[in-house]
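Dear support,

I submitted the protein below through the web form. The confirmation email said the job was done, but the results page showed an empty box. After a refresh the structure appeared. I'm attaching both so you can tell me whether what I see now is the final result or a partial one.
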Amino acid sequence: MLNGITLAIGIIIILLFSSLILTLLISAFLVPLFKTPKEILEEVVNIMNLQKTDTFVDLGSGDGRLVLEAYEQSQCKCIGYDISPIMMIMANTSRILRFPFAKEILFIPEDIFKVDISNATKVYCYLNDKTLSILGQKLINYIEKGGVLFSYKNQIKGLGKEKMVVLSNDVPLYIYGRRGE
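What the results page shows now:
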């Protein structure tokens, strides 16, 4: 006969296994899993020049490393969006361990194709060309309204003028919408 604790552990294991399968399927068919390399996190955040008054969004934040680095350097509101339950568990666990009382860090399990980024002052993404193409009009609208977008490794077609910075790992960071530079 199963008691409540055994049943709860069994349900948790089933849910974690299901989440892992869902993450693998999403990675294989929709948005491949890319991670911004750890060695350039600080460099990318420095280039973004986040201020305490900024609202920073990471589309497809994964395990949340960049969001946490951005918060550590700027103390601004930082939001990470990802649809993967496993990535959200990892990100929230890291947030709790590093910044247990920070209310300005949010990891939201939401589809990046549906998320509203209009209130963000700066947005970061490391997405493949197909995903960037699907997000194209949303990103164009965001930049036209004064937002600043940072894209690691991949250019965004149709956005026109951008600034490119070659990072220390010889990979470009494309910057769109920066005024006055």
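Response: this is the final, complete result; the empty box was a page-load delay. The two ends are 69 Å apart (CA to CA).
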